[in-house]
Amino acid sequence: MKILMVTMAMNIGGAETHILELCRELNRIGHDVTLASFGGVYADELISLGVKHVTLPLHTKNPASVMTSYNGLKRLIRDGGFDLVHAHARIPAFICGLLHDRMKFRFVTTAHLNFSMNALWRKISRWGERVMAVSDDIADYLVDEYGYPREKIYLTINGIDTAKFSPDVPFDDLLASHGLKKERRRIVYISRLDADRADPAYRLIEIAPKIAENFPDTDILVVGGGTEFETLCDMADKVNKDTGCNLVTMTGAVSNINEYASAADVFVGVSRSVLEAMSAAKPVIVAGGQGALGIFDETKVTPAVDTNFCCRGFDLADGETLYGWIADCLNRSPEERAAMGAFNRAFVMEHYTAHRMAADYEEMYRAALAAPVPFKGKADVVVSGYYGFGNMGDESLLDVIAATLAEEIPDVKIAALTRHPKADAKRTGLRCVSRFSPAAVGTIRGAKLLVSGGGSLLQDSTSRRSLKYYAGVLGIAEAFGVKSYVYANGIGPVRDKSNRKLTAKVVDRAAEVSVRDADSADELRRIGVTRENIRVTADPAFLIRPYDEHRLARTMDRIGVKDGFFAVSLRPPVQKNTDTSLMHVADEVVDACVKITEEYGLVPFVIPMQGVQDGEICRYFAEKYNERMKNSGRAAVLYTPENAPELIGVLSKAAFVIGMRLHSIIFASSAEVPVVGLEYDPKVSSMMKALGQPFVVDLAHSADIGGETYGCVCRIMGNRVEIGRTLAERAAEMRERCREDLKTAHGLVRGQR
Question: Which secondary-structure segment (H or E) carries 406?
């Protein structure tokens, strides 16, 4: 890939070091990296490694400098042939965001920290088509403060060059330059010394006399520069004068951080600097300007990782507390400190390498490049469906249809008709148009292809108006001579005579028709469709890629999965010819799940896949289950997934799924996990039949929903391996069918059909 990195400047700092290591590693593994910044010592280092650098005044929000940077980046992007532009920090992201609006290049950003916030900054801050966050709490911040879609946020770590930061790095010349003796012990603190970060430096100099009194063979080095540097130097000079020795050394900004980390006997710091010291096999005290955790060991892993070793949300360390941690380390034997350092280096080697960080970025880059292209002018393809209503299954269909069409048809321009175009555009990155607006007609008119699907669009069991809307959209395409594709639809039931006639008419006139199961094809024949070429395909959701294991592990930690579990997806029944009440279904399934927990030791994860509709029944289920199990120490977990790839990943860890929502069945089978289908609509039994699975409970006609559900689960638990093998085979077949749909769409767009 050819990548343009854009940041403010490349002087010493945590974010700058992150960019340094990222550029170095991407360059090492063969990517073509260009860096634009105001320069600095790290820029010089990258230039020496063969990374191209362009100097622009990106370090300041001075209007003249911003305009100079804007024009310079515009020329660079126009002429550079970059695959994507990657901005770090607010000013570069703001400028690149303005250019992205006009030039439509692929654009990603990294969030290195929680920025200070006011109304102006919230309004003008720009984020890319994908965002990398360096910790979970920063990801939460992006969602909470900016409303950025979580499914487009990726997580990485501060990758460390473990060869550069190792216990073998020599530091004799370093000590000589400061007039320090090697036989003495050293406390090293490294940080940028600005007002919001320098509190530990103040505390360390404050307790320096006490350290000298109790540990007279110890020196203190404060490494870094910043706005507080001169004040801290004055404090250090006074301490040195009062103690009569060169106790505290203030180094200022330096570039040979690895030598200082190697020289430490005890290290104090946060974020990247503490990870670098850990890589150098040093005992570390995690303490910074936003909080402190103390001596790092296995008990501090979770809070350290969750905050990217920055301690956000924890109390600052006062002087007495900091002294206690330092004394604890210094009082330990050399062998104990060596063991602490060995644990720390092993932790970094397993979790925090620069190679892993680069792999995380490559994953984000590939996702950004595979997404539909931003565009001006007319769309090639318009996608119509039940989009923008908060139903995870249908929203995932829009995502996967757009993404796979973009993969199949290079540079295809895709628009979507949705309920909430502004929010949906932000979530999907597509051009979204209100499904009922005049603009929708104009968008269809200018397109080459209308894709109607997937989902159960042509049916009147939920609403007659719904069928007329989707048939009307197909009719508009026909009126303007735009090819239409009834794409992987679930058909029916269509009961009304006029609706059957209308459905037959629009389906017969479509350029291509595919349905997601054989029952849908039969329904089309029953309602009078005469065309011969109706292809039985599969639901496009089978093409959704779940989270990788690394990202999934972080998700499982976030939602608190500790023991074995199964998943339950409930929704209110919608068929008008059933007497089955909402709460009766929940009560029956609760009965089954209590027996399942008692028999197999598994607890239910309850998943409302369409929050507004499913919330009530799912909450009711969880409350009733927990009331029944209150003395058992087990409880149902109400789990609202962020997106379909996350949910498929979570379901892959479940023992089985009890599902009413069609896409809970599809997602589970895609993950090769057995399913009990609760049939409220014929599409559930149709899908289970297509999957070769007999575990279906007919809610409208069952005299014992709970008993039948429990019986299905017992049969599944006795044969999970064979069922999983069958599902794997069927899911692979479904994916192949879905790919045929993509080839058909490709041919329609290119005029080959």
Answer: helix 392-408
Which residues make beta-bridge pairs with 222?
189, 250
CA distances from 1 to 29, 30, 154, 303, 412 (A): 11, 8, 19, 35, 20
Strand partners, 219: 186
Give the integer Cα–Cα distance in Å for 697 and 706: 9
In the sheet with 248-252, reading across from the earlier edge strand, the strands are 248-252, 218-223, 185-190, 266-269, 284-288, 291-295
pLDDT at 753: 63
CA 530 vs. chain centroid, Å, equals: 46
CATH of the domain spanning 549-735, picked from 3.40.50.2000, 3.40.50.2300, 2.30.29.150, 3.90.950.10: 3.40.50.2000
DSSP 1: -
Instruction: Name the superfamily (CATH) of residues 2-155.
Output: Glycogen Phosphorylase B; (3.40.50.2000)
Cis peptide preceding 454, ω within 30 of 0: yes
Q: Which two tokens stand for residue 262?
A: 């190697």
Cα angle, residue 656 at apex, residues 654 and 660 outer, rounded to 5°:
115
The answer to whether residues 737 and 454 touch, using CB atoms and an 8 Å cutoff, is: no
pTM assigned to the model: 0.76
Block residue for tokens 């009711």: 620
**Which pLDDT belongs to residue 387?**
96
What does the domain layout of the chain look like in residue ranges? Answer: 2-155, 172-333, 371-543, 549-735
What's the average pLDDT block by block, 10 residues per block, for the chain (753 residues)?
A: 97 88 95 97 93 97 96 98 96 96 94 72 84 88 88 89 94 96 96 92 97 97 95 97 95 93 97 95 96 96 88 94 97 96 96 92 93 90 96 94 94 96 92 96 97 93 88 96 97 94 97 96 96 96 88 80 89 58 88 97 94 90 96 91 92 96 96 96 94 95 96 97 95 96 96 74
User: Which of 391, 428, 433 minimizes the C-alpha distance to 406?
Assistant: 428
Instruction: Evaluate whether 301 touches 307 at the Cβ level (below 8 Å).
Output: no
CA 598 from chain center: how many Å? 35
Structure tokens that stand for 317 in this block:
């360390």
Alpha-carbon separation of residue 329 from 285, 533, 540 (angstroms): 9, 76, 57
Residue whose token pair is 């029953």: 526
Phi-psi region of 253 (alpha: psi -120 to 50; beta: other; left: phi over 0): beta
User: Distances from the Cα of 544 to the Cαs of 450, 475, 482, in angstroms?
Assistant: 22, 30, 28
* Distance of alpha carbon 354 from alpha carbon 157, whole angstroms: 9
The 3 state secondary structure assigned to 479-501 is HCCCEEEEEEECCCCCCCHHHHH
At 583 the pLDDT is 83
| CATH, domain range 172-333 | 3.40.50.2000
549-735: same fold as 172-333? yes
How far is 590 from 583, CA to CA, in rounded Å?
A: 10
- Determine contact, residues 91/58, Cβ cutoff 8 Å: yes
- Residue keyed to tokens 């973009």: 406
- For residue 698, the tally of other CB atoms under 10 A from its CB is 16
Spatial distance between the Cα atoms of 311 and 323, rounded to a whole number of angstroms: 18
Region 371-543: CATH code = 3.40.50.11720
